[in-house]
Structures are given as C-alpha cells and as structure tokens.
Amino acid sequence: MAGDKDDEIEIPAGRPTINDIARMAEVSKKTVSRVLNKSPFVSADTRAKVEEIIGRTGYSPDPQARGLAFRRSFLVGIIFDNPNPQYVVNMQQGILDGLRGSGYELVIHPCDRRSRSYLTDVRHFVERQKLYGVVMPPSISEDEQLARLLEELKCSYIRIASVPLDRPERMIVSHDRRGGEAAARHLIELGHRRIGFISGPSTFRSSHERRAGLEDGLAAAGLSLSPDHIAEGAYTFDSGVACGTALLSRAERPTAVFCANDEMAAGLLQAARRAGLRVPQDLSVVGFDDFQVATQVWPTLTTLHTPTRDIGRLAALKLFALSDEAEEPEIDEESLVMRLVVRESTGPAPT
Amino acid sequence: MAGDKDDEIEIPAGRPTINDIARMAEVSKKTVSRVLNKSPFVSADTRAKVEEIIGRTGYSPDPQARGLAFRRSFLVGIIFDNPNPQYVVNMQQGILDGLRGSGYELVIHPCDRRSRSYLTDVRHFVERQKLYGVVMPPSISEDEQLARLLEELKCSYIRIASVPLDRPERMIVSHDRRGGEAAARHLIELGHRRIGFISGPSTFRSSHERRAGLEDGLAAAGLSLSPDHIAEGAYTFDSGVACGTALLSRAERPTAVFCANDEMAAGLLQAARRAGLRVPQDLSVVGFDDFQVATQVWPTLTTLHTPTRDIGRLAALKLFALSDEAEEPEIDEESLVMRLVVRESTGPAPT
DNA sequence: ACAGTAGTGGAAACCGGTGTCATATGCAAA
DNA sequence: TTTGCATATGACACCGGTTTCCACTACTGT
After folding, report:
1. How many CB atoms lie within 10 A of CB A308?
2. What is the dihedral sign for C-alpha A188, A190, A196, A197?
3. Is A5 on the interface with B (CB under 8 A)?
4. Nearest nucleotide from residue B15 CA, by C1' atom
5. Which nucleotide, over all strands, has the C1' atom closest to the CA of B70?
6. Matching CATH number, A13-60, of 3.30.450.70, 1.10.357.140, 3.30.470.30, 1.10.260.40
7. This model's pTM is above 0.90
8. What is the pLDDT at residue B3?
C-alpha cells in the first residue's frame, strides 16, 4: 500500500474526464457510466455521490468519445432546399428549441435537388457524421428516393409535408388544405364570387393542398375555380408579378386572388398597381405564410399564419420519440392550425 | 503460419475502417494514417497502393475517432444574433461554400446577447463540441467578452465587422463606410442637398460606419448632416416607419434619406406614402443590403449590395488559414466592395 | 447451515483513429 | 568494411467513453 497518502481528492486541471469523476467518487468508471446512462443497477447512495461530483465539477461527457462507442453521433441534421430565408431560419430556430438541453447540436445541409450529386452528397453527409437523425422540410421532404436512402443508412428522419407520405411517426403533416379553405371562406364572406388562384411550382405539394383547400371552400358555397383564373407561379416575387399581370388582363378578371405564398402575393400587389387597380377596393389579395414581407408591403397582406417554428420544435421532439429516448410528444394540433390574419389587402367585393 | 490460405483480400461488410484498408493494402494502420494525413514519410509506392484502395472502397475516416485522437472536432460553428433571416441564410451558405470538400460541417448557434446565460451557453457549445473554429457575424462579432472567451477556450474564430477589432488575420472588415459614401455621392449627383439618415441601433457598428461614409460624402461636397435630419431606428421595418414619419414631419424635411438597411428603407416608403409624398419625385430613398425586400417594395429600392455570401466563404477560408491548413486566401478586395444598385426609389432633387 | 439468486462493482476489450518510439532499410561518408 | 544518417514502417499506448464478462456481496428459501 505504498503511496496511499495520496488518496486526497484532487480536482483535475483541464476538463474532467469520466476517469477523474470515478476517482473522485471512489468508484469505477463503469459505475459513472451507469449513472450517466441512467442504468437502474446503481444504488441510490452511489448515484447520489456520483451526481454530486458531476454537478460540482461541471463534468459533461465528451460527445465524440461517447459517439465513437455508441457508433453514432449526437448531431441532428436539417436537409433543405426551401428558397425562403425566413422559412429556413424559423425552422432552424424551432428545431433548436426542441433540441435545447438535450446535448444535441444542429448541422445544416442545404442542397439542390437538381444537382447531379445531390443524393451522393447527402449520403456522405449522413454516413460520415453518423447523424442521429435528420429533419426534412418541404420540398425535399417529398423526395421518396431521399427517404429510402435514409432508411438504408438507418438514419431516423422526420418529414414535414402537407400530406401524409409514410408512417405517421415519421411525419408532421401541416394543415395547408385547411388554410386554403379558411382563405376561401374569408373571401366568400366578403362577397367575392370570382376568385382566382396563383399556385406555387407544381412540384410543391403545399401548393396543391392550398389550392385544394380553396376549392373545398368554394365548393361549400356552390362556387368553383375557373381555369381562366388560375396561374402557375414559382413561389417567387417575380412569378407573382407575372402571374398577376396575366390574371388581371383576363376579360372577366377575378375580384379576389388567393396566392399560395406571400412573396407571390407581394408580386400580385405590384401587378395590380401597374394595372391601375386599387387593393382592396378593386381587388382583394390573400397570401400564405405570414412572413415579414406580409407587413412590409402596401397594403399589408391578409394571409395565413404558418407555425413554422412550432413545427420545427415538434420535429425535434418526434425524432427523440422515434428511438424511445422520449415519449411521443403530445401533438397540440391546435398549435399547428394555420390562422387567418386579416390585414389591409382584403375588402368587400366591388359591386 | 497457420491459416494463411486466408490472405485473400476481402471487402468488409459495413463501412470500411482504417484497419480494413491497412489489411487490404498489407500495411499497418499507422501507415494508412500517414497517407491520410499527408505525412512525407511514406514511399511513393506505398502511398499509391493505399490511395488506390481508399479510392476503390470509398473509405473516409471517421470524424469522431479522428477528433477524439486530435482532441478537437471537425465542426465549425456560426454564432449569430443577427435578426435578418436573409443575412443569416446568405452567411450560412457562404460559410458552407468555403467548407465544401474539406470534410468540415457547420453547426449553428443563434443566441440572444441580452440573455443572462448567453456566454455560458456559448462556452458549453464550444467546449463540449471542441469546435475547430467559429465565425461571428455582426453584431455578436463586436462583443469583446465573447472574443476573450474563445481565446481562453483556444478556439479559432473569425469576426466579421465593419471596423478592425483585433488582429487582422482574425477579422474580415466589410466596407460599410465606403458604401455609405457611395450613397452620398449618388444623391449629391442627383442634386440633393438636404439629405437625411435613419440609423440602425447604436449597438451596431455597421450603422455608425454607414453614417460615417455618408458624412464623408457630404463633406466632400461641402455639405453636412443636420441633427434634425437624423433618426435612430432599430434595423426593423416598423422602426423605419416611425423614423420616417418623424423625419418627414420636420419643418425643413430632407429631399432624400439614406437608410442604414433595406428594411427601414421599406418602412420609410410606407411613411412617405402615408404622408402623401411620391417617391422618387418628392423624396429619394437609398437602402442598404440589397436583400429581397429591395425589389419587392414599390418603388423598388436603390440600395447598396452587400456581398454577404462572399464574406462567409472568405471567413471559412480564413479559418483554415489560421491553423496553417491552408494558405491565407487572397482577399479579392474588389469582390467585397459594396456596389450601388440604382432602382426606382431615387431621382433628381425636387426643384 | 447451505445453496441459489438478484443486485452491484471492477477489469479488460473495444469503438476508429493518432502519437511516441523503436526498428529496418538504403545509401553516402569515414 | 564499418559507421552514420535519413527515410520508411510497424508495435503499442492512448484519446474518453461503453460493453462484455466475471466476481463479489447480501438476501432469500429449504
């Protein structure tokens, strides 16, 4: 028993490791590991002692070493191709909300679905980093090839889309269709009968759903969407200008137009101004998203508020639920409802 | 020598490890490691053989194991508190441009400087992940406490700001002042003499610099900025409306106003409309940033284009240069110049 | 009193890389 | 021929965790 004068508990110099904690608590590192991983086979006394020391030293296990042993990382990825900066930032914030306090971090991976190497890039990204999971917002979420790739790589994922695409535990379905219906009801209540629609790109389901909702609402009032009053845009401001110009030059132009997003609605306002139409006296406009642009144009846009950040948070929580690390979060469906925000761009139909 | 029938080269089942490569190349794992790390002490033959096998198997080393041995990670962080989504997304894209092909990934960490735990949060983030480096755009880049914290944690960082803050190798200085001067020259050439300014929050250096540039330009023409024609905004649309309303109600109102960003310029347009002023006939407006909003308002904004994405790319490259992993990138100063984009919101001064 | 069993803790191997150090080889100089 | 040095390679420990396996308690039931 030489050198047992040194059984004083020393605080190590740098960041403590599991060995330091074990030494200070006078247990084996395995026992510390059991405490860290909440194993039931640790006596209350031992657990308390170890936890006290962990708290006092501020120890937290090294994610790399942990990950190496677990054969996975503590990183969550977001793979996206959505062109709207505000959508992206809100979604990132939401995911981080859900990750907070878990020790997981968020790694971003924007991509271009048209790129030849897109799937290979994603494969390298997920495989190399051994991601814990990924979140995919639209429209990348609708890519079945990508979903199959992640399946093959055994990487958990959550898809956010406006229609159910696969197993519900891996999906968050946004209520775009009901949003479109709310827009329709609002315009119909204001007396509009000739209601037009500017869609997003045909590759976006959200645009289809928003249109389907509009048609639901119209049908309920005995109305329908005339092919003459539909234009296909690209979710961009410029496409909104172009589609708006086209719609407003129709012989029987609509008295109200529902746009599949705010950017295009802003473009439509521009087109209306150029055509000498006053909004909302001559033309009512409804947007979708309730992003900043909705309050920065004139007149301000009546639009549907999308709870992007809430959806992001939910996505992170669902990811944890997938691997039994947490309970399936109670989905507060009400918080995901898209609410109509009435501003200046809608008014009674011209007589 | 029992079992030497098995010296056939087998392709391993899952992802290959360094051991698999070593076995297939009939060298030690250490030699493979040397090839990976470009050690000069490997013969050309051996190197070629190992590289051939690496290429054929698609092997790439595990960043976690590598990081564990190196005592650092292959993650770059971006710490930001900038409220503009488009700035954030452009910056992220730029950093990713610079990281592409390097094997590094980008981890995001938005934060709120007013939060009590902000510095602690950053410390945990950087320390736990053992980040290779971080990029800090304004205004978080101006926080000296944060810089000292990173110094203490021995974490490389690049600060992006409109004035030099510390050692140049850790800074990217944006040319906000010259941008402000260009705005001034433009307005002066159009005949404006009473030129106003809407600033950002006083905590943003960029706003000071943009104003200083404006004053440079005015001084060169023998003009100056009247205190009556200055209002302090908050870089937000609403503050632009408020400041605009204030400035336009002055007895001698300015005939042109330079806004420290586009959002506020959009707000000013709104205020002008409410005040019954036509832009640009009665009032010229110059913004700053050239973000999407600049082309989505009416009239479209004359503004200064900021090369956010290029700056982000440069930041990533500089990070590598800090640790001799790469040459100091040749800073193409010309690509960082902020160019005036003339659109509809500026015109000759009213006579 | 004597096994049988569940609860608890430790030693050693392992995850996939890198660092240190020793050794083997080739070639020029003594 | 021997020495000396630089280059090329490998053995082994190590980074900081987890898992496997085993030993040692302290209870039970008979």
Report:
1. 25
2. negative
3. no
4. C16
5. C18
6. 1.10.260.40
7. yes
8. 38
